[in-house]
Design goal:
Layout lengths: L2 H5 L7 E6 L5 H10 L4 E7 L3 H7 L8 E2 L2 H7 L2 E4 L6 H10 L3 E4 L2 H6 L2 H9 L2 E4 L7 H8 L3 E10 L1 H4 L3 H5 L11 E7 H7 L5 H9 L6 E7 L6 E9 L3 E8 L11 H14 L7
Parallel strand pairs: 1-2, 1-4, 2-3, 4-5, 5-6, 7-9
Antiparallel strand pairs: 7-10, 8-9, 10-11
């Protein structure tokens, strides 16, 4: 599905981009679009706090409108979703109904709402799940064309990065004043995404890329000895065995989000109109 063709626009014209959520991820994506990404133009943002968003755009060359999710979908060929997980459906559904490209890092929300994938299939919309803070998804997707026997992921985060996770509250797990690593979760990627919706989108994305969230194994450690959000994946397939580790620097605004996550979204945006795409 080509969005420009859907709207009857020229392929040489800029595609209008809307951003839903303007926090640690969205504000940096907006700034990159304001500086300039070939073939794309920032059109509007959708946020709860319009005044704050306007303040964040004070240094932009061109501040844009703040509007509703419905208006964003109506006005923009591409909708970048980087809002809290509870807002996912309210942003995704209007965009997909209008055959837009929905670019998101909310893999956990996508697992919880598979009807959004069905909506995209019926409407002609398209969902692009950006790599986010993980690595190796190209290799996992390639291996999934054959037979993958197992996928395991081990996440280690500074305790502060896990603060507020529903799973910790539900199970009475205290992570304050830890002096040694503590295993706070062991289960499937689906279960982990539900219990840590703001922390392990990476595990949900890994599940979607490979053998599914119910067969992807996940461990989460609160580790006071690390100062970076660290993810290791181990894959055993008929085509290859591989393991990879990434250590992400936490963002200043939101410790649970790595600095690389908005850069991943920016890279995905560039790929939409680039003459050369590198990677699967």
């Amino acid at each position: 599905m080509e969005v420009a063709a859907t709207r009857g626009a020229s392929m040489t014209a800029d595609w209008r981009v809307g951003i839903a959520g303007f926090g640690a991820i969205g504000s940096k994506v907006g700034a990159a679009l304001d500086r300039g990404i070939e073939g794309l133009a920032l059109e509007a943002v959708c946020v709860r706090d319009a005044a704050r968003a306007k303040g964040q755009m004070a240094g932009f060359r061109r501040a844009v409108d703040v509007c509703s999710a419905e208006a964003l979908a109506e006005r923009c060929e591409v909708v970048v979703e980087c809002a809290p997980s509870a807002a996912f459906v309210g942003i995704a559904a209007p965009a997909l109904r209008r055959k837009r490209i929905l670019l998101t890092v909310s893999a956990a929300a996508l697992i919880e709402h598979p009807e959004m994938i069905e909506l995209a299939a019926k409407s002609g919309g398209r969902i692009i799940l950006a790599t986010g803070a993980l690595l190796g998804l190209d290799a996992v997707r390639a291996a999934a064309e054959g037979t993958i026997r197992s996928v395991r992921m081990v996440t280690r985060k500074p305790p502060l990065s896990l603060a507020g996770a529903p799973y910790l509250a539900e199970h009475g797990i205290a992570i304050d004043n830890l002096t040694a690593p503590l295993l706070v979760f062991s289960g499937t990627a689906r279960e982990g995404a539900r219990g840590f919706p703001a922390n392990v989108n990476v595990a949900a994305a890994l599940g979607l890329a490979g053998i599914g969230p119910d067969r992807t194994e996940l461990e989460i450690w609160a580790d006071p000895s690390v100062d970076r959000n660290t993810h290791t994946i181990i894959v055993d397939a008929d085509s290859a065995r591989f393991s990879m580790t990434i250590e992400n620097v936490p963002s200043e605004e939101k410790p649970g989000t790595g600095r690389i996550t908005p850069l991943s979204v920016i890279a995905a945006l560039r790929a939409l109109r680039a003459p050369l795409r590198v990677g699967t």
